Amino acid sequence: MNGALMPLDYSKWKKIEVSDDEDDTHPNIHTPSLFRWRHQARLERMAEAKEQREKLSEERLINERRVQDIDEKLKSLSVDDKERMKLELEMNELKKQEEEFLKKEKELEDNEQKAPWNIDTIGHEKFSSSRVNKISDQKAEPPKLSEEEENARM
């Protein structure tokens, strides 16, 4: 390189687009619509998770009732040996189903804990107390001033 300083060649950076926008979305996407779609999808996921929990608890209740029925039948003395064997096999199957329900519940809890926070689930109201002041019919009378204070005011 010779002794003379070469001026900087800025042509390399001509094509760079610089924007002071801090918008996360593409300019061609309507931002309020995007937020509305995301919110709707979030609500749908929450509804689906709630439905899964309700379905699981419903199935578990049915299973528990069936176990109780079989227990009652087994305790009764009028059941013959074939029937007893059949009921015991069914009881074993129901116990296996109960274990599966416990696994599914654990899985749902884990998924719920791993789910990212969002505006709909970030806070829950623990208690609510609203107080409203009663409006009286009488207006508060201004305090009586002495003559000197009234004269000083005017």
From TrEMBL:
One of its GO terms (molecular function) is protein kinase binding. It comes from the Eukaryota. One of its GO terms (cellular component) is cytoplasm. It holds the Pfam family CDC37_N. One of its GO terms (biological process) is protein folding. InterPro entries: Cdc37, Cdc37_N_dom. Residues 122-154 have a biased composition (Basic and acidic residues). Residues 7-130 form the Cdc37 N-terminal domain. Residues 105-154 are annotated as: Disordered. PANTHER family: CDC37-RELATED, HSP90 CO-CHAPERONE CDC37. This is Cdc37 N-terminal domain-containing protein. It comes from Anisakis simplex (Herring worm).
